[in-house]
Design goal:
710 residues; mainly beta; 8-stranded mixed β-sheet; 3 helices; elongated
């Protein structure tokens, strides 16, 4: 080896690749030497790209989030991402463990990275600060009944995200039914007429509400308010007035107050009520000297914790369509303490964009924005989600060139460009190359195709779950783009002479056929024949068959009817006696038959043998892509005619017999004699054109065969 650092080679010719580079391997025997170039490429990286989900997210301090890493190899295929190393650019803002679980610690922004070598995926995490944020407004009292004409001042208390009271600037008061009562900027409500209304207090987009019922009092002792809801520990001042039938207040004398259940609440001589425990109690007012009494009802809510706020984590994030993310909903009481075990119901504002189940698992469906809501009783929390287009994956591949015609021994470079579903190029994705027929040529990982023998092969580029195919024709002569006609038909036949560089033909080679095995030669481009299948009667070490379009034998009278095409098929290297049978599949355009007023039943394949056209057993297979497909069985190979002819005219005897041409076949140890019964006359016209290239084609194929078997 010229470069032992790149690779070494032992006395048995075993080369070991060690490092990226190029080395020349030399084999020497005496004064004779031969060399081979070896290129050692760097080992494939484990990943070609890593994408984190979600790519952008907002969390509260103390929140945790499981990131998902989607990894692709160099060919755009998803692969397990267990070997990634996780890191946070600002550990003060948040940390991430080896499993991709991020913990928010303090206000700030950090970049989360999942990497393998030089390949990394990132996500941006914003941790919100602990500064008080208005989260809830509570109105006192939350519910009250007033007499028409009464006035009452409501109090709005603002709470932050932790349940702590905080100042609220510019609280806007409103009454849902001004006919029942109005409220001013200071929270003073004036009851006007019987009815119900909802009082709201709004600040910074947060709203609190209280229910008010306005009634007209009956004559007698009127207690204000006639009904109210209070929390345990709260107090309220009641008043009592004696009203006559005309709704005029007569006097407000000494009032004796009492509570019918002092375990719920008590009231003193001045009308101050103190709420003690959960329940409902009736308050009675008696005015001395009048003999009249009035009542009011107080509902006391428990001081025990009740749900007051729901926080969803993450509260704001971006995710790709097709990805999932689990959200958590945390319920807090009126004191800002967490309330575990409270069931919440999740809902998506648009299930077409994304859905969320009862466990909080969000599934992104298509790109847009959506609001997710978690509800428990009368309270709820929400999160904003931006759904982006799905992760970029290989969707199409463009190969240049799409078709190539080269000669044996030549090298042609193919270039493949991969595009995602948005038609954006994916320059980080490489393709896996393959060739459909290694006997015709091979293609390496760099897209370099090396031609061996004449024939047609497909070159395939694959990336992710998509593939694209280019066609390579290996020939010693150019393949015409617009084949000419023969005998006035719409078919094409090859030509020879006239200064042409030579006929175009396809060649296929097989080897090591056992008895009963079938070698199928397909991908034929120089005639209407799609494939030739040869079944071995005995073991066949190797064989080669050529197919080309041709003209009618010079001494032959064309078959009656319309001939679509003449075809020449020749067998090399194999004894015809070792061939059990051969099946030829061919096609004819539907339009050609229609133009000639024929049906598929009129079509037959005919073989020229012993100076006559021998009809072959032909079966109509069906229509495909604007062409009729047929199958014919032949006992041997020679010149064939695809013709549409009446049954009574299937055999034509020529005026003159063909001149034998077996000498040419003997020269290359090949024959085109029939493989069937003794009654079949040997072929009289040898395939001249392919044999022109036999001295070149056969040695090349033989060398290839030896190379593959040694």
């Amino acid at each position: 080896s010229s470069d032992p650092a790149a690779g070494t080679i032992d006395d048995d010719g075993v080369f070991t690749a060690l490092a990226a580079g190029t080395a020349t391997v030399t084999a020497t025997s005496g004064e004779v030497a031969a060399t081979a170039a070896v290129t050692v490429i760097a080992a494939e990286p484990e990943f070609g790209m890593v994408v984190l989900s979600p790519p952008e997210v907002t969390l509260e301090t103390g929140d945790t989030l499981q990131f998902e890493a989607v990894a692709f190899n160099s060919y755009g295929e998803t692969v397990p991402a267990a070997a990634l190393t996780w890191a946070s650019s600002d550990p003060a803002a948040g940390t991430i463990d080896d499993d991709g679980v991020f913990t928010a610690l303090a206000a700030g922004t950090t970049t989360v990275t999942a990497a393998s070598g030089d390949i990394a995926g990132t996500a941006v995490v914003t941790v919100s600060s602990d500064e008080p944020v208005l989260s809830r407004i509570a109105i006192t009292p939350p519910a009250i009944t007033l007499n028409a004409g009464d006035e009452e001042t409501f109090v709005a208390t603002a709470y932050d995200q932790h349940g702590t009271a905080m100042p609220a600037d510019a609280v806007a008061w409103a009454s849902s039914d001004p006919a029942a009562g109005t409220i001013d900027d200071g929270g003073l409500f004036i009851a006007l007429d019987a009815g119900t209304t909802t009082i709201t207090a709004t600040a910074d987009g947060i709203t609190g509400a209280a229910d008010v019922t306005v009634v007209r009092p009956a004559p007698g002792v009127v207690v204000s308010p006639p009904a109210i809801t209070l929390d345990e520990g709260e107090t309220w001042l009641f008043t009592a007035t004696l009203v006559d039938p005309e709704d005029d207040a007569l006097f407000s004398g000494v009032v004796a107050w009492s509570s019918h259940d002092e375990t719920v609440g008590t009231i003193d001589e001045d009308g101050f009520f103190t709420a003690l425990s959960e329940g409902a109690v009736t308050i009675t007012a008696t005015i001395d000297g009048s003999g009249e009494i009035g009542t009011a009802v107080v509902t006391v809510r428990p001081a025990s914790a009740f749900p007051a706020r729901i926080a969803i984590s993450p509260s704001d994030f971006t995710i790709a369509a097709g990805q999932d993310l689990r959200l958590t909903a945390t319920v807090y009481d009126q004191y800002g303490d967490e309330m575990p075990g409270v069931a919440v119901a999740f809902e998506s504002s648009d299930p077409h964009i994304g859905t969320i189940d009862d466990s909080g698992l969000f599934a992104a469906l298509k790109d847009d924005s959506v609001v997710l809501t978690a509800t428990a009783g009368d309270i709820s929390g929400s999160a904003r989600v931006t759904v982006e287009p799905s992760l970029a994956v290989p969707a199409t591949i463009a190969i240049e060139p799409a078709k190539a015609v080269i000669a044996p021994g030549e090298i042609r470079e193919f270039v493949a460009t991969v595009f995602d579903q948005r038609d954006d190029g994916m320059d980080w994705v490489r393709v896996a190359w393959s060739c459909s027929d290694a006997a015709i040529g091979t293609i390496d990982r760099a897209g370099l195709f090396t031609a061996y023998i004449c024939g047609t092969a497909d070159v395939k580029a694959r990336a992710g779950g998509v593939e694209e195919i280019a066609t390579v024709s290996v020939t010693t002569a150019p393949i015409p783009d617009d084949p000419g006609n023969n005998d006035g038909s719409a078919g094409w036949s090859g030509s020879s002479g006239g200064g042409d560089s030579g006929p175009a033909f396809d060649a296929g080679m097989g080897e090591s056929l056992m008895r009963g095995e079938t070698f199928t030669f397909s991908g034929i481009t120089t005639s209407s024949v799609d494939s030739v299948a040869i079944t071995a009667a005995n073991s066949i070490p190797r064989l080669m068959v050529t197919v080309k379009g041709t003209t009618a034998p010079s001494a032959a009278v064309p078959p009656d009817g319309d001939v679509y095409e003449y075809i020449e098929i020749t067998l090399y290297w194999a004894n015809p006696d070792d061939i059990e049978s051969a099946v030829i599949v061919f096609t004819i355009p539907v339009d050609w038959l229609r133009e000639h007023g024929m049906t598929p039943e009129d079509v037959g394949l005919m073989r020229y043998v012993g100076g006559v056209w021998q009809p072959l057993d032909t079966v109509f297979l069906g229509e495909e892509d604007g062409a009729y497909r047929f199958r014919a069985t032949t006992p041997g190979f020679s010149t064939f005619a695809i013709a549409a002819v009446a049954p009574e005219n299937t055999t034509v005897t020529p005026e003159a017999t063909a001149t034998p041409g077996g000498e040419a076949n003997t020269t290359i140890n090949a024959t085109a004699e029939p493989m069937a019964t003794a009654t079949t006359v040997p072929v009289t016209t040898a395939p001249a054109a392919p044999l022109v290239y036999a001295p070149f084609l056969a040695p090349l194929a033989f060398l290839l065969w030896r190379r593959r078997n040694h």
